[in-house]
Amino acid sequence: MWEIPCCFLFLTIFTRWILPLQEARCGLQSFQDPILCRLPNFDTSQLVGIVSFLLPSLLCLDSLKYSDQPIRLKKALIVYTCVLATKCVTMYVTPFDVPNGYIPLMDLISKAAMKTAQSNNSRDLMFSGHTSMALICTLAIVHPLIRYLAALLTVLMVMCLLINRVHYTIDVIVAFFVTFTWSTILKL
Questions:
Q1: What is the pTM assigned to this prediction?
Q2: Is 129 contained in some domain?
Q3: 8 in a domain, yes or no?
Q4: CA-CA-CA-CA torsion for 43, 48, 49, 54, nearest 10 degrees?
Q5: Which domain covers residue 150, as residue numbers?
């Protein structure tokens, strides 16, 4: 009963206080990503926004079919909160600056986080929260066809994030690792 209010409390703390602290940091490091330099660079914000909306929608659609889904939705929220707690630590120990060619995301989720944090959230790089959210939705979906569609949308989102230069490749790889780890620990 206490898990959901605690999750929302942490999400509020994350967006109101932790993200602005990360934005204000000095001494950030930038590096040459061998994969990013081979990808085109253009704004994919709208597509990221659409996929960010579609994945939770698919999860809700899937929950209508399966009776145990409210428990899976609750576990997904707890996994996401644990992933964000891990992100707080990794952002602190890996002070990266934005990649060359960075284009700010202007999807609804990013805009809401920017408004709440009162900053542009360009330095919350290590690791990708969008990728984690997409993967959690994919893992929580039970129906095989919907899960397959969600997996394709997750790959599309990752490609869009890299093309937009919002994350380094390592940010996305670490997001997959951390999300799979928490999903396994919490049995999502």
A1: 0.85
A2: yes
A3: no
A4: 150
A5: 45-185
